[in-house]
Amino acid sequence: MSVTFEFIKKNGTDQELWAGIRNSNEAAFTAVFDLYHKPLYNYGSKLCSNTSLVEDAVQDVFIDIWRLRQGLTPEITSIKFYLYRALRRRIHVGLSRHLSMEEIGMLDDEDVPHSIANSETILIETESSLIRARQVQELLAKLPERQIEAITLRYFEEFNTEEIAQIMGVSEKSVRNFIYKALTSLRAHRQARLISTLIFWFTLVF
Amino acid sequence: MKYDPYSLTELIRNDDFIAWVLHPDEELDARWNVFLHDNPEKKNTVESAREYVILLARDTGRHMPTPQQSDKMRRMVEEHMRREDGQTEIIPLNSGWRWTRVAASVAVIFGVGMFSYWFYNKGSERELGVSSVHVIASREADQMVRVNTAHKPMMVLLPDGSSVVLDPAATISFSKKNWQNQREVTLSGKAFFEIAKDPQRPFLVYSHGLATKVLGTSFLIDASKDDVKVQVTTGVVRVFSVKDLSETQKQKHVEEAASYGMLLEHDQGIAFSKENGEIVKLPDLVASNIEGNNTPIFVFDETPVEQVFKQLETTYNVKIIYDKANWASFPLNATLTGKPFISKLEVICNALDAVFTIQENEVRIKPNPNL
C-alpha cells in the first residue's frame, strides 16, 4: 500500500495565521489586516463619529500586534474577537484623550418584563418592505451608542451574546437588554410614525 | 398578556432564528419549516422578522472605509513595519507593498512539515468557489485543526490510520507533538469515528467536557447541540466527564483501565449535558439515537465490488477510480463495520490483489505490480 502525501494550500485558520504573525511572517499579518480592517473600521465608526480617530485606532491595533508579535499569547480561539476587543479599548483610550473625558458607562441591568414584548400588532406584518427598510435606517440613526454597538456586533458581526458581553465589558444580561431595547424602540418608533401619519390624513380629510 | 416566544421581537432576537436567516442550512431549514407547518398563522411574523434581521445586518455594516481610507491605513501600518526593520528610505508608493496579498501563500509556508495526509472535498469546493477545508499545520503551532466548511461530509485521515467523517461545520483538532504518546482529539460538531486498533495507545475524544475513550472501534459523536451524544456502532467505549477534573485527575482516569465512567457497547448510547456534566444513558436501540446517523453497515456477502465502492464513495465522500471492466462485478465477502477507511481499502484490495493510492479525495486502485 502506498499513500501519496498531499497537502492542501489554502487560507490559514486563526491559529495558523496567529502562529505566523508570532513568527514574523508578513504574509500572515497582511492576510489578517486584509481580512479584518474594513469590518473593524465599520465597528469603530459606531463607537466614535470622528473618522480620522477611527482610522488611527484601527491602524494602531495592527501596529501593536506587529510590534508586540513575539509577546502575543500563543493560544487564540478567535483573531476576530481579539481584534474587536483591542479596537474598542483603543477607541475609548483615544476618546478620553481627545475629549479629556472618561467614558461614563451607564449600565442598565434591570430586567425587562416579558409582557412588553407582546403588544405585537398585525400592522407590522402588513407593512411593505420599503417602509421597513426606511424604519430600520431611521432607527439606527437615533439609537443610543451602546444599543447600536450591541446590534452591530450581533447582526453584522454575528458575535454571540457571551462574546459581545466580553467585548463591551458588560454582563450578558446587559447585552440582551441593549438589543431588546433597540428592537422595542423599533416598534415604538413605528407606532409613533403610524399615528403621525394618521393625524396627517385626519387633518387632510377634515 | 401571555408571553409569546415567537412574537416578532422575540423572533428577531432569537439566536436560532438569526442563524437560520443569515446562514440557512439543512438542519435549520428543516426545523423552521416544521415550526411554520405547525404554526401556519406565524407565517407573516416569520417573514417580517426575517426581513428585519436582514435589514439590521445590512444597515449596521454601512460604515466600511472607502478604498482611500483603506489604503491610508494600510500605508501607515506598513510604514511602521518598515521603520521597525530599520529601513529609512522612502519606497515610492506604486512600487507597492511588500506584502503579498495572496493569503494562499501563507498556507504554503505552513503546509510544509505536515506529517499526515488529508483529503478534501473537491466537489463542494468548486460549488462554493471557496476553500471548503482549512488545514492547519504549522511547524511552530503544534495544533492540527480540520474544519468542514462544506455542505457535505468530509473525511479526515488521522496519522494512525483512523478515519473520521466530519459533518458540515464540525471541527476536529489534535496536538501533533503529543500524538506519538497518546491519540487525543478534540471535537466540536458531529462526526463518525472509526478507530484503528492499538491497545498500547488508547484513543480519546474530548467534546465539551466529555471524554470518550476507546481502543479500537467505531462510534458517532454529536457535539453540535446542547447535549453531547455518543452512539457506539462496534466495540466498547468508555465515557466520562472531565468537566471538573484537574489535569492530573484527568490523566489518571485516562490511564485507568475501565473503572471510571460508563462503559458502552455496540448500539448503546449516552447523552452528556454540557451544562451540568451529567451523563444519561439513552435507551438501547437498533435505530440511532442521533439524528442523521445513517452510517451504512459494511457487511458484504457476494456483493459486487462496484456496489462496495459506491458505498465507500458516499460514506466517505471520496472518488474511487478503478478498472471497471475487470473488477466491477467481482464478488466480495467481508465484514468491514467499524474499520477505518484505510483498513477497509486494505481488506478489499487484498481480495482483489490490488494496491491503492490516495491523493486528495481520490482513491486509485491498480493491480498489484509485485504479483
Mind sketching the topology for me?
The complex is a heterodimer of chains A (206) and B (371).
Chain A: H1 14-22, H2 26-47, H3 51-67, H4 79-99, H5 123-126, H6 129-142, H7 145-156, H8 161-168, H9 172-205
Chain B: H1 8-12, H2 15-22, H3 26-38, H4 43-59, H5 67-85, H6 104-111, H7 122-128, E1 133-136, E2 143-148, E3 154-157, E4 163-166, E5 171-175, E6 183-194, E7 203-207, E8 210-214, E9 218-223, E10 227-234, E11 237-241, H8 247-255, E12 262-264, E13 269-273, E14 279-282, E15 299-304, H9 305-316, E16 319-321, H10 324-327, E17 331-335, H11 341-352, E18 354-359, E19 362-367
Parallel strand pairs in B: 6-7, 16-19
Antiparallel strand pairs in B: 1-2, 2-5, 3-4, 4-6, 5-6, 6-9, 7-8, 8-11, 9-10, 10-13, 11-12, 13-14, 15-17, 18-19
Compact description:
The complex is a heterodimer of chains A (206) and B (371). By secondary structure, chain A is an all-alpha fold.
Describe the overall structure.
The complex is a heterodimer of chains A (206) and B (371). Chain A has 206 residues and is mostly helical. Chain A has nine helices and no strands. Chain A has helices at residues 14-22, 26-47, 51-67, 79-99, 123-126, 129-142, 145-156, 161-168, 172-205. In chain A, α2 crosses α4 (79-99) and α7 crosses α9 (172-205). Chain A starts with 13 loop residues before the first helix and ends with a helix. Chain B is α+β, with helices and mostly antiparallel strands. Chain B folds into three domains: 1-88, no CATH class; 104-282, Jelly Rolls (Sandwich); 299-367, Phage tail protein beta-alpha-beta fold (3-Layer(bab) Sandwich). Classes of the chains: A mainly alpha (206), B alpha+beta (371).
